[in-house]
Amino acid sequence: MYLYNEELACSPSPPSYQIFKQGDGYTVYTCKTKTSRNPVYRWSISTGAINQFAFSPNNDAKFLATVSHDGFLRVFNYHTMDLVGFMKSYFGGLLCLAWSPDARYIVTGGEDDLITVYSVVEKRIVCRGQGHKSWISQVSLSSG
Fold this sequence. Notes:
By secondary structure, this protein is an all-beta fold. It folds into two domains: 1-45, no CATH class; 46-144, Thrombin, subunit H. The protein contains no helices and twelve strands. The chain has strands at 2-3, 17-23, 26-31, 41-45, 50-55, 63-68, 72-77, 82-88, 94-99, 105-110, 115-119, 124-129. The strands form three sheets. It has a four-stranded antiparallel beta sheet, with no helix packed on it. It has a four-stranded antiparallel beta sheet with strand order 5-6-7-8, with no helix packed on it. A four-stranded antiparallel beta sheet has the order 9-10-11-12, with no helix packed on it. It starts with a strand and ends in a 15-residue tail after the last strand. WD repeats lie at residues 87-120.
């Protein structure tokens, strides 16, 4: 996943990167140049493909949630690039996610045929919904 600054030009040559920040299951790289250019950062998250990502619905979009083929939901503080929470699927990859309107919960679905509700505040799974007979490819929450 790449982070671009809309005020900077894109580089005509492939960028060379160095590690900027590293944590459990992710690495953030920055360009090894003396002048600022795009892409500014490259996020390497998980060992598999990222299936979906979404910013928290609050005004400052402080949190970034990702679900990936390795079965993890990861929640980052987008501004500090720190991992602030995570959970693992029962088995298989996670395919989709949705934030609650108040940004307190994230709902995920995936190859385990379960809907899982993760509390961002408590940093844990608060419930699972079973009964589906196939992978869950989309979830959503309403404010009403």
